[in-house]
Amino acid sequence: MTQDEYISYDGSGLAQLIRAKEVKASELLDLALERVSVLNPEVNAVVRIMEEDARTAAEECHAAGVFSGVPFLAKDLGSHFAGHPTSAGSRLAANIVAKQDTELVRRLRATGVSIFGKTNLPEFGLTPYTEPELWGPCRNPWDLARTPGGSSGGSGAAVAAGFAPMAGAGDGGGSIRIPGSCCGLFGLKPTRGRTPTGPFRGQVWRGATVEHILSRSVRDSAIMLDATHGADPGAPYEITMPEHPFAEEVGRAPGQLRIAWTTKPTLGSEVHPDCIIAVEEAVELLEDLGHELIEAEPQIDGKGFARAFMLMVASEVGTDIHDAETVLGRRAKRSELEPATQALSLLSQSLSAREFGSALRLLEREARSVGAFFETHDMLLTPTIATPPARIGELAPTPTEQLHLRILGLIGSGRLVKMIGLLDEVARHAFDFTPWTPVFNVTGQPAMSVPLHWNQDGLPIGLHFVGHFGAEATLFRLAEQLERAQPWFDRLPEIAKNLLRT
Q1: Which CATH class name applies to 3-299+434-501?
Q2: Which are the catalytic amino acids?
Q3: pLDDT digits (tens, 9 = 90+) for 442-469
């Protein structure tokens, strides 16, 4: 198999070739590793190679797994692989080795994938861009001067560059959908509780975070969700099992859907004209496909939501750092945390129980309001993010802001962080880029970014669809209908297509 042939298949197609004995799993792994060796120095998507594990999986490849022998990359956060560090993109956690697999990893292994490496991410998955001090910035294969998004930016960049047909991702505020948009990929965030969080965690980010994959095809996402979904022992909640396998929903007619649409930012302030055009063209396409489109959007307190969400995140980050300190048996050094992360940790130490409880209650109230909106709509359509992929460094704190954050870290006062309004500034800056996605982490609804649009600069712009709680089947049906109507699979960045000619 040549490199051009390798990137012409999705994961399901490669698995079929292996089952037919037309290609060996070891050969696919060699191709994947070759791509990484040639392109990763520029893209910086893969931060750890796990070749020995992958070789073992490839040698033991059998037909039982739905993706047996297919190369796969894992995000270096959340999913723990026994015997390997889980860095979480932080110098503090960089060398903490997992003692056992998480349940989701166990299910991933059962599919037969050859997990050959881990992908880049921002520290503790905190930002919608991937520029950690530990690993350095990850770059978008569509334009190396731009971000692949975050926090699953390394996974998005790796799939867009053709390292693997799919990669693991987690979504706590848009971290599957944002890289999906930036990298021209399909990214579905499942319903809260659809994929397992055990055996160490129950609710991650108070239930906001769900793990799944980024892929180039809709069917890969559906087949993988069939293989990994379902509650595990001790899960805090269990949602209704699907009526049919998700893979069977791909290709089923979605029927006429009543789809609300908007380009008004829920949490941010402005939307780039290219993103507005993408939605308007999607509305026309959906109407041509027979759906009913209504311009409407849920009404929520955007400013209050953003602040409450950041309070929740700050408390979780503070706890993540405390947990890492417990494992290490010592306090974190200032040099081991990025300034913004340290400021959030300080803030978490100054929060009262009442402030934290009030923030969670505000999020719950807003989720109820969104739920009422979906009583009269099957789906909501927005841009996935508010701009085309941002330039590297554009979304990060400025040098002056970095200095202020470092000074706050030296002073070590969470109360001062609160007094100067840092939280509100961080929330505003973050949600200007992602004004829609975090809302549906709080509601727990499934949502997807679909790569339907590229702007005049050749940059991908995703379309964001949100469904009813537990209704991934409807999203998969619509996604496949859109995939047939406006195919995207063969759209690849030049860096991916010209591997051996660079």
Answers
A1: alpha beta
A2: 75, 151, 175
A3: 999 999 999 999 999 999 999 999 999 9
